[in-house]
């Protein structure tokens, strides 16, 4: 294979375990079918209301979106802003600065996904 992972130091069992643990933590927080899609839509659109967010993510139910937004808010990726001074009350969701730290990860996943799809098409395997 042309792409190999090069570590700064020789990988020990302890180091490997640490990397696996870190990846597990990351996947736990942003894994699943919807979380990265929600983060991407929020980053592209700025302030967005619930129904508009749901329209931008095809196939997600209101219940699932609500639960995912709560999880993302608990982990600091989304901020929920309530405009109570307006009637009816308006609720918007905003991507936090912390969620923007995922941009390199999202871009790397996007690049990898594109290459993988091309490999499948070209029957590299």
UniProtKB/TrEMBL annotation:
Keywords: DNA-binding, Transcription, Transcription regulation
Pfam families linked to this entry: HxlR
GO molecular function terms noted in the UniProt entry: DNA binding
Coiled-coil positions: none
Stretches assigned to the HTH hxlR-type domain: 16-121
InterPro entries the record matches: HTH_HxlR (IPR002577), WH-like_DNA-bd_sf (IPR036388), WH_DNA-bd_sf (IPR036390)
Protein name: Helix-turn-helix transcriptional regulator
Organism: Chryseobacterium cheonjiense
């Amino acid at each position: 294979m042309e792409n190999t992972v090069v570590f700064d130091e020789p990988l020990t069992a302890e180091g490997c375990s640490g990397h696996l643990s870190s990846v597990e933590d990351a996947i736990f927080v942003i894994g699943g079918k919807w979380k990265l899609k929600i983060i991407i839509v929020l980053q592209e659109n700025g302030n967005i209301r619930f129904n508009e967010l749901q329209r931008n993510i095809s196939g997600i139910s209101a219940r699932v979106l609500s639960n995912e937004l709560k999880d993302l808010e608990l982990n600091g990726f989304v901020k929920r802003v309530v405009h109570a001074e307006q009637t009816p009350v308006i609720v918007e969701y905003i991507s936090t600065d912390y969620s923007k730290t995922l941009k390199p990860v999202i871009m790397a996943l996007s690049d990898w996904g594109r290459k993988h799809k091309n490999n499948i098409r070209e029957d590299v395997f």
